[in-house]
Design goal:
CATH architecture of the largest domain: 2-Layer Sandwich
CATH topology of the largest domain: Nucleotidyltransferase, domain 5
Radius of gyration: 31 Å
Largest sheet: 6 strands, mixed
Distance between the termini: 58 Å
Helix content: 25-40%
Bound molecules: adenosine-5'-diphosphate, magnesium ion
Shape: elongated
Number of domains: 4
Length: 618
């Protein structure tokens, strides 16, 4: 008998379980749902009406972190114990952030043996996964408080350029926070969904998603067709955002004050105050024409046009990125159907104007830019909850995935740019009689030889029952789930022996690396084809040698002496040729050996068939 769920707090019958959408941001995080009654997406607000949770943690002596607005004030007073911008560290090694290590006021631990960074707080070490999980826990408990029901399932968004390691780490953070992460969703895809784009099955649209947040800028060009979201290109600047506008205002005031030869000196004490005032000024100027206030009794002011002068070089930088993104996507401005504004900093009128001018289009800005990603995540969550059955959202793989076959060749099972989720399989067999195990090495990349690609994983299928070479049927299947996580399974079909692994790259590829791998594959294309051809013929030759040797050994009594001697002579030669590496010569020797062994092979075959026919009594 089924159970009926009752909401203990309200006594009402419980709705189908709510799946929440979470925007885990660099500066701010938030959680949203589809309202069960009016079916509209909405963010979850705390009692004071605030939906944004600053992605900041403060650790006090107890070692228990506080998250959000409460932690914010410790940024200046207790910088070593106050962690911000965790998102910049997730799935990264120390080498990845070495150049930017000054950016972080807390201690990032460079553990040479362990490739992923840790953060040191007091005498404790935390991984970015753990730190992110504290933020997610806070969001989870806020949602539970407001919804008055346990929240255990979520969709979490990440930037489109996040690699496997960063996605996996985000998923792990969710798990650690007690959330079953049903989907990792690209932020620009989420923003499009919030605007209802892609929900109409028959439409094909090209969309630019312009996301200017607190510390990062991302531009993504998406193509939506038949409900499939394809990321055509991404570009941006990981160190350009609202903070830079604040800095520019502080600098402006500082110069003014020094110009007026004021006695006011910038000190550690008022530095933070100036920054806070600058941010307040920036927000104020999004709606008004002048900002006037004071710090330490000194008058500070800035007009909208002064602010726009400061801001325009920053905005122009983002426009340059937009142009590059279009170039990479091989798309012209006129082909863009919609421009979507995301991130708190797109509230700045100058940003909207400049972006609108560049794309020559009215931008989509009717939804709150700092909520739109979370709202879209909620739309996706609702689809996954089965409330919106018509839709399935897909992404694509950036690089080909395959396994190593004989001679170190890359055998691609999932080509680059395949739509995910995807499942494919292919059959392989053994090369040696009685071979009981095979090693499966999984690689990612576009080159023909695995040594030029990146190894993701290796595992062994063992306990295959002893069979003659070529008889076992080993099916290798690749499954990439909707989050882009690869599962590899090997099964010997005759015996049912199975082995599988989830490929969790401990250390993912940066955008640069992906790009380099693609460029390499183009640059070496001709060379690769030649190498592949040689390796293939070498492999064929080795197999033929093996088979012929075994055959001769087994059937010595049935063969003529001169047949054996002639074969062995060619075999010796073939062995030398395999090493010398001339494709055509090897090929010729293979032909020769085949030719030479054909008569006795045929004799043998006829006998075998004869026997088999007798047995079968046709
Ligand atoms: P992230 O995606 O990086 O977590 P958000 O999208 O929440 O960040 O954007 C935060 C940034 O937006 C901050 O720099 C904040 O100052 C800026 N911001 C928020 N509201 C406004 C506004 N009204 N005018 C200008 N900037 C704003
Ligand atoms: Mg954001």
């Amino acid at each position: 008998m089924g159970k009926i769920a009752i909401n203990i707090a309200t006594g009402s019958l419980q709705q189908k379980e709510m799946i929440v959408g979470i925007d885990l941001g660099t500066t701010n995080s938030l959680v949203a749902i589809i309202h069960p009654q009016d079916r509209n997406p909405q963010v979850i607000k705390e009692v004071m009406g605030n939906s944004l949770v600053p992605s900041v943690l403060h650790f006090d002596k107890s070692g228990e972190p506080i998250v959000g607005d409460e932690a914010l004030k410790y940024l200046l007073t207790d910088p070593q114990q106050t962690i911000f911008s965790v998102k910049r560290l997730i799935g990264k090694s120390y080498n990845d952030i070495r150049e930017r290590s000054n950016f972080f006021t807390y201690k990032i631990f460079d553990d040479q043996t362990e490739r992923l960074v840790k953060i040191q707080v007091g005498d404790k070490f935390y991984s970015p996964v753990e730190l992110s999980s504290f933020i997610l826990k806070e969001l989870k408990s806020r949602a539970e408080h407001i919804l008055k029901t346990p929240v255990t399932k979520a969709v979490i968004t990440v930037p489109a350029y996040f690699n496997d390691a960063q996605r996996q780490a985000t998923r792990d953070a969710g798990k650690l926070a007690g959330l079953d992460v049903l989907r990792i969703l690209n932020e620009p895809t989420a923003a499009s969904l919030a605007y209802g784009l892609g929900l109409n099955k028959n439409e094909t649209k090209t969309i630019a998603v312009y996301d200017l947040g607190g510390g990062t800028f991302d531009i993504s060009i998406l193509r939506i067709s038949d409900g499939i979201f394809e990321v055509l290109s991404t570009n941006g600047d990981t160190y350009l955002g609202g903070d830079d506008f604040d800095d520019a205002i502080v600098k402006f005031w500082k110069e003014k004050i020094e110009l007026e030869k004021s006695a006011l000196k910038f000190s550690e004490n008022n530095k933070q105050e100036f920054r806070l005032k600058a941010e307040a000024a920036k927000r104020h100027l999004s709606l008004h024409h002048e900002f006037i206030s004071n710090v330490d009794g000194y008058l500070i002011k800035i007009s909208k046009s002064e602010f726009e002068n400061l801001g325009s070089p920053l905005v122009n930088k983002t426009i340059l990125c937009c142009a590059n993104a279009l170039k990479d996507a091989e798309i012209s401005i006129t082909e863009i159907d919609e421009v979507i504004m995301v991130g708190g900093s797109t509230r700045i009128p100058l940003v909207k104007q400049t972006v609108g001018q560049f794309f020559n289009k009215k931008v989509n800005d009717t939804l709150n830019p700092d909520e739109v990603v979370a709202l879209g995540a909620a739309v996706q969550a609702d689809i996954l909850a089965g409330n919106n059955k018509d839709f399935l959202l897909l992404d694509i793989t950036p690089l080909s995935l395959g396994i190593e076959t004989m001679g170190g060749l890359m055998d691609v099972l999932i080509p680059r740019n395949s739509k995910i989720p995807i499942r494919t399989s292919r059959q392989y067999t053994t090369q040696k009689d009685g071979q009981m195990g095979i090693v499966i090495s999984v690689f990612q990349g576009e080159r023909d030889l695995v040594k030029d690609n990146r190894k993701l994983a290796e595992f062994k299928l063992s306990n295959i029952p002893a069979m003659p070479a070529g008889l076992p049927k080993i099916e290798i299947s690749f499954l990439i789930d909707a989050d882009g996580i690869l599962n590899v399974k090997a099964k010997e079909l005759r015996s049912g022996v199975t082995q599988q692994i989830e490929v969790k790259p401990q250390y993912g590829l940066t955008d640069k690396e992906v790009e380099k791998m693609l460029l390499d594959s183009i640059e070496h294309a001709t060379e690769d084809i030649q190498t592949r051809a040689l390796v293939e013929v070498q492999t064929e030759a080795k197999q033929l040698l093996d088979v012929t040797k075994t055959f001769i050994e087994k059937n010595k009594t049935h063969l003529l002496n001169e047949e054996i001697i002639a074969s062995e002579k060619i075999m010796e030669q073939l062995e030398i040729l395999i090493k010398s590496g001339n494709k055509d010569e090897i090929h010729a020797a293979i032909e020769q050996l085949n030719e030479q062994s054909r008569p006795y092979a045929e004799r043998f075959m006829n006998e075998a068939i004869g026997k088999a026919m007798k047995g079968k009594q046709v």
